[in-house]
Amino acid sequence: MRMSVIGCGYLGAVHAAAMASIGHDVIGIDVDEAKVAMLQRGEAPFFEPQLGELLRQGIDAGRLRFTSRMADAGGADVHFLAVGTPQVQGGHAADLRYVDAAVDALLPHLRPGDVLAGKSTVPVGTAAAIARRVDPTGATVVWNPEFLREGWAVHDTLTPDRIVVGVPDSADGATAADTIRTAYSSAIDAGTPFLVTDLATAELVKGAANAFLATKISFINAMAEIADAAGADVTLLADALGHDTRIGRRYLGSGIGFGGGCLPKDIRAFAARAEELGRGESVVFLREVDAINLRRRDRAVQLVIDALDGRVFGRRIAVLGAAFKPFSDDIRDSPALDVAVRLRGLGADVIVTDPAAIDNAAAVHPQLGYARDRDDALRDADAVVVVTEWDEYRRDLSPAHAGGLVRNRIIIDGRNCLDAAAWRAAGWNYRGMGRR
Ligand code: UDX
Questions:
Q1: How many CA atoms lie within 13 A of 349 on its CB side?
Q2: Candidates 156, 210, 220, 262: which one to mutate for ligand 1, based on the most atoms within 8 Å of Cβ?
Q3: Which ligand 1 atom is the nearest neighbour of the CA of 121?
Q4: How confident is the model at residue 436 (pLDDT cuts 50, 70, 90)?
Q5: Backbone angles phi, psi at 434, to 5 degrees
Q6: What three-state secondary structure class fits 165?
Q7: How far is CA 118 from the centre of its chain?
Q8: Cα separation of 27 and 249, whole Å?
C-alpha cells in the first residue's frame, strides 16, 4: 500500500519507518529540510531505540523516502497526519496551526477515495471540521490516534496494545475502515484488537487515555505526600496496591512526577476542550492532577534544601538526569531539568549529567553546568539528586563508588528508584519522595 506520513517528529518519523518495515511504500514529508535530510540519510533526528536501524532498512529496500515537497504525497492511498499540537501561548488549549497548515497544503493533492488518517492528538471535534474541508476532494477523513511512548516508540508502533480508528457514519467510512485495517493487517493478524468507532470517540480515546495515565501518576504522588506526613513508605504502598489486578502496578511510580511533550499539555488541552463543550466540571479533577504533579518538583527542591540545612548557595549539586524519562533525549517539560533550574535559581553550583539529553538541555539552559561523564558530575558534590531513572544511576551506580567521589554523602532520590537500605548502609543520608 502507498502511504504518506505528514510531519516527521517523534510520532511521524517512527510511523513512517515502521510502516515501511512491514512492507508498505512510504513517503515521509516535513517542512524542516534539515530534518528531512537527516532522515533521508537514515539518521534518527532524536534518540529513539531501533529507529536508525529501521530507517536504514526501509531506505535501502527502496520502500521509504523523505521529502519536504507536499506534492509528493499525491498518489498515496492513505495520508497519515502526524504533526505536533503544542499548547497555545498564554492558554491551555491545543494549538492547531500545524494541523491546519498541513491540511491546507495537502488538499490540492487528494484524490477521490484517498484516506486522510489523523494521528495527532487533537481536541474532540477537530476531525469533523477537517472532514468538512476535505469533502470536496472526495477523500475520506478518519482518526487513528497514536498511543506510543517515547523510548518504546518502535515497539509500540509495531506491536500496539490496540488500534483505534474513528470513521464517518457512511459507506465511505466503512471503506476507509477497511483501508486502515489493510494498512495494519500484520498487527491485526497477530491478534492486536482493532476497534472501529465514530470520529469523536476516536479523538476522545487518546485524551481520555492520557488523562487516566496522568491521574494514576498523580494519585500515587498524592499518596506520597500523605506517606511523608504519616511516616509511611509510598513504594511499599504502591507494591501492595499493584497486586490488586483491578489497579495494577504500572504507572504507580512515585517521585517528581510526569513531564514530556504529551501528558502535561494533553491533559490541559483536554480540560480546555471540555470547558468549551460546557463540561468543565467533568474534568475539574485534572486541575488537581496537574497541581499535584507540579508540587512534586517543589518537594524535591525542598528535600535538597533540608538535607543541606538550608545552605544551598554556592554548594555543588550533582543532578543525575535531564530527560523527562529514561531512553529519551526529550527535555520538553522535563521535571528533571526543572528541578535543576530551580536549584540553580537558589544559587547552587549545579552540574547536570544525562546519557542522552545534555545537548538538548544545554541549548535551552546554558546557565547550568554539565558533565558528560557521570563520575565527573559526582566529584566533590555536596549533594546528589537523581531525577531521571536511567539504568546508569538506578542499577549501575554503587553507593560505595559514588561515596568515593562526593564531598557529602547526601542523596535525594527523586524517582524512588534506588535501594534505600543499601545507600543508607553505605553511610549515605538517603531521602526518597514519600519514603520514610
Ligand atoms: C505518554 C503516554 O504513555 C503515551 O501513550 C502517549 O501517546 C504520549 O504520552 P510518553 O510521554 O512517551 O508517553 O511517556 P510515558 O512513559 O507515559 O511517561 C510520561 C511521564 O510520566 C514521564 O515523565 C515519566 O517519568 C512519568 N511517569 C511515568 C511517572 O512519573 N510515573 C510512572 O509510574 C510512569
A1: 10
A2: 262
A3: 7
A4: confident
A5: 90, 25
A6: strand
A7: 18
A8: 40
